[in-house]
Amino acid sequence: MGGFMKRQDIHKVLIIGSGPIIIGQACEFDYSGTQACKALKKLGYEIVLVNSNPATIMTDPDTADITYIEPLNVERLEQIIEKERPDALLPNLGGQSGLNLCSELQAAGVLDKYNVKVIGVQVDAIERGEDRIEFKKTMNALGVEMARSDVAYSVDEALAIADKLGYPVVLRPAYTMGGAGGGLVYNKEELKTVCARGLQASLVGQVLVEESILGWEELELEVVRDAEGNIITVCFIENIDPLGVHTGDSFCAAPMLTISEECQKRLQEQAYKIVESVQVIGGTNVQFAHDPVTDRIIVIEINPRTSRSSALASKATGFPIALVSAMLACGLTLKDIPCGKYGTLDKYVPDGDYVVIKFARWAFEKFKGVEDKLGTQMRAVGEVMSIGKNYKEAFQKAIRSLETGRYGLGHVKNFDQLSKEELLKRLATPSSERHFLMYEALRKGATVDEIFELTKVKAYFIEQMKELVEEEEEILKHKGEMISDEQLTAAKKDGFSDKYLSQLLEIPEEEIRNRRIAIGVEEAWEGVHVSGTKDRAYYYSTYNASDKDPVSDKQKIMILGGGPNRIGQGIEFDYCCVHAAMALKKLGFETIIVNCNPETVSTDYDTSDKLYFEPLTLEDVLSIYKKEKPLGVIAQFGGQTPLNLAAELEKNGVRILGTAPAVIDLAEDRDLFRAMMEKLEIPMPESGMAVTVDDAIRIANNIGYPVMVRPSYVLGGRGMEVVYDDESMAEYMKAAVGVTPDRPILIDRFLNHALECEADAISDGTHAFVPAVMEHIELAGVHSGDSACILPSVHISPENVATIKEYTRKIAEEMHVRGLMNMQYAIEKGKVFVLEANPRASRTVPLVSKVCNIRMVPLATDIITSEITGRPSPVPALKEQNIPYHGVKEAVFPFNMFQEVDPVLGPEMRSTGEVLGLSVSCGEAFFKAQEAVQSKLPLEGTVLISVNNKDKDEVVEVAKSLVGDGFKIVATSGTYAYLTAAGVPAVKANKLYEGRPDISDMIANGEIQLIVNSPIGKSGVQDDSYLRKAAIKAKVPYITTVAAAKATAEGIHYVKTHKMEELKSLQELHSEITDL
The whole model's pTM is what? Predict the structure, then answer.
């Protein structure tokens, strides 16, 4: 590549990451940021990277040259810019956060002050793309049509505009993403509510009111432009769900399957005009609406940055948009980048002969009281992508990739019991179950037209589905026996999975697999060429083509990925898979990754030697295993996904490397695990198992209330609750679904006021090493994934730390853990109890690796493969270290997207992502972590305290500390009486129904800067939830546990009494660690 083309006026580039994973901004930005770092390093630039999210590959000390894990805001960035003096800033790889920050830095004069050039996208271009008024002006000048609309700065203005346009109208606040704060409204009352919310959500208090284009086709183009004005279209994406469902929730196809060539040409011409005028260099996503009735095309919006769609487009076509965008930002052109398929990239056209489907994954079951309906606000927490030769094959592959326990489209929940009328009634509102309801409606005889009228999903897609239903009905005539070879062959070509066929026919999956192999019906693989490379490709399976997948005879190891992002299993597991691939390469193996998540670094073409973009099911993994014949498979890095497959794979002769699947099952089996703990003389909280209400009440009374109850087979704490008395216990047991003697309800003593902590260990089966113990800030009872935590621990006595390390070693050795393991403990009155053992990689691995500067996954990979390589174990050489600083992890929640949910933390995990604050002082680290989750703690003002009786003692010291730091205290009646009695000056405030002005008025009027509120026990959880919801609405930092309140007071005190320290990069912090 000609180095003479790159810009010589810049040497050091600053890249802004996108921060924690939230709904609307997920792993795709880790993928784009990591790719950009690769490109810039190759071109010889020095990279400074800032991101607050520790779970990413981009914040690894090896990815950029200088890495800051700091809150993403103007003050912190100015400190970094002042210290590092970068020549340029590349803002279009960090999602909406990166773009907004760039605009704010420009507005604050920081970029000019330190002479930082913005590359890739100009600041005024961000405004032309993001500011609704500017964008409209640009479009009018180009003669590109937009939805009829007007801008409002108040509710009254909005009402007047809506009258002119006619209801329904859509409200869109400026400078937000994931559709936050907006919505579709059908009448004046709805408009008043949503508009008030939107004005508040917008950075600039500006809301666009536009005509409704509900039911139109939503079409996206992903285009790339260089500095010379060469433009190519990387991908045409058709949303199968029509407008009215956010694109992040829409089911989509690439290429466009029902849009005429002529219409695609018009879309392309308009997209090129827009990108030309906005002058973006790199990737841009352009969203259009097309009315199939009048043939009107209007542009909805552009994203002048890499986005969720550009990650999808990259993986769908093999064109690495972020990588190419970063090169173009540095002055190269498309003509400078060679490509084995097209010569150079300016000649690229999307010409793959396959169909790609994207399907979203939601988490409605985690949020009680949230209605499962889809609209203009994004709700999905993850997505899968599948590739097939035709629509049916790709569609059915996508469904089995989702890991929702569904291997086909039919017989979901009780949908096949519902009448046609009931099914059609449910189809009137879009929901996450829409396509599964359509399938059953077709089975019950609904016509294509009836479904089209209700859903506006195009007839072609409904007809394809109807053919699948008809095929399935034929198969169902043969229940209990094998279908004919012709039928089996046809079903496989149409994407029916072995497992689904076995469910329909009620015969073992193995029989179906054996029969199909006997008649020669096996998966074949085709490659997707990677643009900009000579001949790299990744592979997808199909039953509709001959095999074109060359296999090497090197020593290979296969890594199973984590599948779609979801709450409880996110980017942390992808981080582990990527590190495993890098470590295996260094050990000389050829690496194979199997995964189906288009957002991640693991599905980047050069993370592994060979990528299979496939669902993680027995059928698909076994086919690849048979084809590639690897020496073994690693299942412990991808979260629950590969572990669920491990035992079945082993049964079929697959060699699972590392900890044996049987050991992993042993840790899940409460009785076996308890027996092992008794043998090792390690204490556990008393517990029992119950199937009936009477059992449960008897056990609970023996143990003593409060108790923790939960079903026996879940990840991420689904269905866990703390129960305080017989009555609630009876209610829980009655509501529990599917409890059987082999799936009982588990009941444990709830450790009251216990400090919870966890330890990650690296074990070789005979020795184990614990880099540091993590101390949770929230007490036992809050899911570990949701609790803030301090690392290394601060408030655990040295004896207890030693005990935890010793127990962890004993358990790892007893269980013969080979690789990584995570242990959860609680300390009650100075005694350490074991809560659970997870003999696999956990979500804290990236956190521990970064804070302690230890490469946990490579060490584990070395151990796992030692049975092949014969290398000695690295564990005995690992030394205890002195880490002279602290990290505080804080979780990020989607409560702002689910305004009807009470944001109280409990045993069920509900966070989508995390941030890390680093500092010499644990208090300041906590302060920074709060700042990073956009909940910056105040240094002056008024604190509202309203806590339940059991917390009143402890809250006194918090209140005293805050008063000492100059805060005013406002408290509700009970707390007020208690504080004043203890000599803390406070003012009494009215609760709801105690007369106005009450606390919610004070919060809404901005009179409160911080809220400390623990729920009042059983009935109180309902009673005072309005207070926490009001806090979220007014963006006031709120704290729901006394433990977190103590950390808050400590953090505020530290920041008020110390001068701001110079920020240190991760690399500088690591250089301060010493061996003990």
Answer: 0.92
